[in-house]
Amino acid sequence: MEQKIIILDFGSQTTQLIGRRVRELDTFCEILPYNKFPKDDPSVIGVILSGSPYSVHDPEAFKVDLGDFMGRLPVLGICYGAQFMSHTLGGKVEKADSREYGRAHLETVDTSNPLFKGFEQNSQVWMSHGDTITAIPDGFECIASTRDVKYAGYTNGKDVWAVQFHPEVFHSVQGSLLLKNFVVDICGSKQAWSAASFVDTTVAELKEQVGDDRVILGLSGGVDSSVAAVLLNRAIGKNLTCIFVDHGMLRKNEFRDVMHDYECLGLNVIGVDASEKFFADLAGVTDPEQKRKIIGRDFVEVFNAEAKKITGAKWLAQGTIYPDRIESLNITGKVIKSHHNVGGLPKEMHLQLCEPLKWLFKDEVRRVGRQLGMPEHLITRHPFPGPGLAVRILGDITPEKVRILQDADDIYIRGLRDYKVRLSGEEARKVLAAGVPATMTDGEIEVSLYDQIWQAGTVLLSTVRSVGVMGDERTYEHPVALRAVTSTDAMTADWAHLPYDFMAKVSNEIINKVKGVNRVCYDISSKPPSTIEWE
């Protein structure tokens, strides 16, 4: 990697979003804890300081030695980053009279400054802070103000820029332009980071890393492991062996369909139907965490048994992506969340770890998949929980309950794929920016509901029965809940506003065709406070 931007994370909820925006500029970036700046990395061309939940006056506030990079690299401070630099360099940061949160407009902006080149007067930005800068350090000048925030942007005119708003969020209308001005014009990015360059570079690196060794990869049917498999297959061919375990709680016909897709891609895949073992071990278990532990344990046992049959294997490949690794560590380096892709290897396997996608965000993984020529339905497949439908069935797990949920979910997902909507303006731009194949005609695009949604699924409330009437008979069967959310990275999510005619059609079809269901509900909870999955 010839060039990179370093983003120092002070704990902001939108740090990953800064990274995504930089990557959208075809520029590689790395998100690191605030105190882990790589001093001896010659590929670094600029530094961005993120926001933070802390005030600069808090005793536990995160601090960095600005001397590590200031004076030799361009620096951009965002929100807390701007306040921290002002506070550290002799300016003044005080508690605002009222929390400055939400939309604001740059009533004055110096468009002659390279950071604001091309900006319109009165451009909308997004504020989110409790403190505000009341004085900037000597040698610095103000280059942007809102009605309530005098120092919305400031600079030393040489190599330091700072803004008290968040250019990375959607509500900052020209935020992407600001980041482009910094990354491309100020830092000098050659914009050489792309799906095509990633494929070429990674294939070469994998050939060097693995050589003639055998590699084992556990497939899930999801986009991450699938793209990792195709990438490795391009690098080492038949030296890659993939294992796809069916625990019995996949979607309807998923094991058969995905195996067919993998065979069409030329992958060497071993399919293992271990559903009887999983159902037996889950019998009578209702606690969600216990379900996950049993499925995780059984998966490792089944996977290991198959892996031992592959002689000469020295590597285990995983579809770990960049957010997996970021979410598993907080900015102090302590583990706060174990992720299924970064939990470590079973000691008895004695395999080295290979993670070809470890630097990519989810949308970048999809771009790489398209670059590799993979079928679109594999690339755009929604995220699906590792334990499968087991965590979408409230209560104990039985083959009959799984059958009910599979049938209901199949109707729902097929309906989302078949229902087309026309989009224009910003909605269309966001869909196209995500890489969804669509053609703009007269300012509009047509896409399926499925492609507009981050994740959708059906939940079986098997611990609940409701009264219904079918024909002349009363029924006493289960409700199902439909779930659909919009998101960019699953860290936050909003419930999708699905069309009423679509919901009416799907509800009617589920109740009429799925034996065991007589009521359909729609989940309108956002994350937070709810989670995407119910268990």
Shape descriptor:
globular
Instruction: Find the structural class using helix and strand composition.
Output: alpha/beta
Write down how many β-strands occur, each being a DSSP E stretch of 2 or more residues: 21
Relative strand content: 15-25%
- DSSP helix count? 15
Keyphrases for this structure?
535 residues; alpha/beta; five-stranded parallel β-sheet; 31% helix; globular
Structure description:
The chain has 535 residues and is an alpha/beta fold. It is 31% helix and 25% strand. The chain has 15 helices and 21 strands. The protein has helices spanning 15-24, 80-89, 175-186, 195-210, 223-236, 254-264, 275-282, 288-307, 322-327, 362-371, 376-379, 399-418, 425-433, 449-452, 500-513, and strands at residues 4-9, 29-33, 44-49, 75-78, 92-109, 124-135, 141-146, 153-155, 160-163, 214-219, 240-246, 269-273, 313-317, 352-354, 420-424, 444-448, 455-460, 466-470, 473-486, 494-495, 517-522. The strands form 4 sheets. A 9-stranded mixed β-sheet has the order 2-1-3-4-9-8-7-5-6, sandwiched between helices. Helix 12 (399-418) packs antiparallel against helix 15 (500-513). The model is unreliable at 332-345 (pLDDT under 50).
Task: Give a summary of the structure in a few sentences.
This protein is of the alpha/beta class and 535 residues long.
Q: What is this structure's SSE topology?
A:
Elements: E1 4-9, H1 15-24, E2 29-33, E3 44-49, E4 75-78, H2 80-89, E5 92-109, E6 124-135, E7 141-146, E8 153-155, E9 160-163, H3 175-186, H4 195-210, E10 214-219, H5 223-236, E11 240-246, H6 254-264, E12 269-273, H7 275-282, H8 288-307, E13 313-317, H9 322-327, E14 352-354, H10 362-371, H11 376-379, H12 399-418, E15 420-424, H13 425-433, E16 444-448, H14 449-452, E17 455-460, E18 466-470, E19 473-486, E20 494-495, H15 500-513, E21 517-522
Parallel strand pairs: 1-2, 1-3, 3-4, 4-9, 10-11, 10-13, 11-12, 13-14, 19-21
Antiparallel strand pairs: 5-6, 5-7, 7-8, 8-9, 15-16, 17-19, 18-19, 19-20
Helix pairs in contact: 4-5, 4-10, 5-10, 7-8, 12-15
